[in-house]
TrEMBL record:
Protein name: DUF1330 domain-containing protein
Domain DUF1330: 3-97
Pfam families: DUF1330 (PF07045)
Entries under InterPro entries matching the protein: Dimeric_a/b-barrel, DUF1330
Organism annotation: Streptomyces lavendulocolor
Amino acid sequence: MPAYALANLTPPAELDDEVLTYMERIQATLDPFGGRFLVHGAPAREVREGSWDAALVIIGFPSLDHARDWYDSDAYRRLIPLRTRHMAGDVLLVDGVAPGYDPATTAAELRAARS
């Protein structure tokens, strides 16, 4: 099942050289784990509900194990401070859904569990 690394980042007003170095090097840390950027710091074009003032990053992986192994890899752990010294934010790893996922089936299971 696919998995994703999501980051909600607040970029600095001016990008520091360390942030640019982080950006230059991150793909090499993703490659061994099948990671690829799906969204990379794009501003929200249309906020339909709530508010959003951060940069969103979504990286896809073949599985949650791949995502964990990437995040915990020595190569990526060495890069993290280049970002965190200059950008506040949240990073999380989440499972995706299997092909053919149907939310109505999940709702039915949840209804049955309440009974």
